[in-house]
Design a protein that fits this description.
The protein has 437 residues and is α+β, with helices and mostly antiparallel strands. The chain is built from eleven helices and five strands. 30% of the residues are buried.
């Protein structure tokens, strides 16, 4: 149930459910007070001095109804209940139990709900002092009304003294309990509110950190894809220059060069569109490292074996020419998957890397046999891998395997290699495209 508006003292106001519970509590105590008053009158608790039952009904209402607003106005509730209890007991209303319960609840409410702790302390101390003064006066009046007593009757072990000590100790325990329970409830509520506030702050910080981490990963993707776009544009410039040079004396060579320019332009536009759809930003910094290739995955496997995680590597199918976008992102996905396997798989982790070539698509599969951490939110590494697969126009699956361990599978289109003008350029392009032998 959502809370009401904040209270003027800064604490969260009681909820509607809590206010309803207070109404039910006040109603139940009202019924109990009426029954207790009636039974006490029938039993003749105070003998012939008992007032008429209508005064008992009025006392029951005045004693219990204020408890319905004990959370909204705890100090007023305590003062009213204490005064009504004093008047009722002084007037010999034959109700012996519900009044004490109502007084206990009212004092507890001041300790549990008043944010101004100094005011809460003052109100409770005044009521407690007033009750003990009344108790002492009542006991001495009662002892004096017995008539003449001997000194022995007032000794420490006399019935009168024992009764006075019993009433005194009972009231000490009664008010100390109400005071302590109220303080404990307030401290617990404040601790819970601070914990919930801190949890909300940590959640906001976590979301902000996650968003920043994803943004930084997108910037890294943009840096790497910058190399890809620069490669296509530079190839187009070389091919256009070659076509202009041989246009007059070798039209066929010029035609081949222009076809290469056209193909490079198409590939560049496709990759640019994928980049823009993924990054959604124009803040792309200059590249700081060379573009990575698929044939470097073998180095990742060797590194994993050298660092204590047995890892196998297999290439399935006939290798095809892959675009630089696919090579960069598949390499990074393999790197992140092996890192996660080594980090989370435990000492018994083993990994298996498979690279499949299927016509014009490439599939990368990285599985491990270590343990799997369940629960929690997905890691930022998985987010980055999905971003890279999407940047290549493909998809990525990452989930625990039924037989144990974890499996990451990415499938992306291979793309088209950059055509060359002559045999020399064709050899360079084939070498740069990263075809696996």
């Amino acid at each position: 149930m959502p809370a009401l508006s904040p209270a003027p003292d800064g604490r969260t106001a009681p909820t509607r459910e809590q206010l309803r519970n207070d109404l039910w509590l006040a109603g139940a105590l009202l019924v109990g007070a009426i029954l207790s008053t009636w039974l006490g009158q029938v039993a003749g608790v105070f003998g012939e001095d008992t007032p008429h039952l209508s005064w008992g009904l009025l006392y029951s209402v005045a004693l219990t109804v204020p408890l319905a607003v004990r959370r909204r106005m705890p100090e007023v509730t305590l003062i009213v209940v204490a005064i009504v209890y004093f008047v009722g007991m002084s007037a010999l209303i034959p109700e012996l139990y519900v009044g004490s319960i109502a007084l206990f609840i009212a004092m507890y409410s001041v300790g549990a709900w008043v944010a101004d702790r100094r005011r809460a302390m003052v109100v409770r101390v005044i009521v407690i002092i007033g009750m003990f003064v009344w108790l002492m006066v009542s006991m001495f009046q009662a002892s004096g009304a017995e008539g003449e007593q001997t000194a022995a009757e007032y000794s420490l072990l006399s019935p009168v003294a024992a009764m006075m000590m019993l009433q005194f100790l009972f009231n000490v325990v009664f008010f100390a309990g109400a005071f302590a329970f109220g303080e404990r409830a307030y401290a617990s509520a404040r601790s819970r509110e601070m914990l919930e506030q801190r949890t909300r702050e940590l959640e906001r910080e976590r979301e902000l950190t996650a968003a920043q981490a994803v943004a930084l990963d997108r910037v890294r993707i943009a840096r790497e894809l910058h190399d890809v776009v620069a490669h296509h544009v530079s190839a187009m410039g070389v091919q256009a220059g070659a076509a202009r040079t041989v246009l007059d004396r070798d039209p066929e060579a010029a035609r081949r060069a222009l076809a290469g320019v056209e193909e490079s332009a198409r590939s560049s536009l496709v990759e640019l569109r994928q980049l823009l759809e993924t990054l959604r930003t124009t803040d792309a910094a200059a590249p700081g490292a060379s573009t990575l290739r698929l044939d470097a995955i073998g180095e990742l496997v060797r590194y994993a074996n050298e660092n204590g995680m047995p890892t196998t590597f297999a290439v399935v199918g006939t290798p095809v020419a892959a675009s630089d976008v696919a090579q960069v992102n598949l390499y990074r996905i393999a790197q992140e998957a092996l890192t996660n396997a080594r980090r989370h798989g435990g000492p018994e982790a083993r990994a298996d890397v498979r690279l499949r070539f299927d016509d014009d698509e490439i599939e990368l599969e990285v599985g491990n046999e270590g343990r799997v951490r369940y629960g929690g939110t997905p890691g930022l590494g998985l987010v980055g891998m999905r971003e890279r697969a999407a940047a290549s126009g493909g998809w990525l699956e990452a989930a625990p395997r039924p037989r144990g361990g974890f499996l990451v599978r990415a499938r992306v289109p291979a793309g088209a290699p950059t055509p060359a003008v002559d045999g020399h350029h064709a050899d360079d392009t084939a070498r740069d495209s990263g075809v696996l032998a």
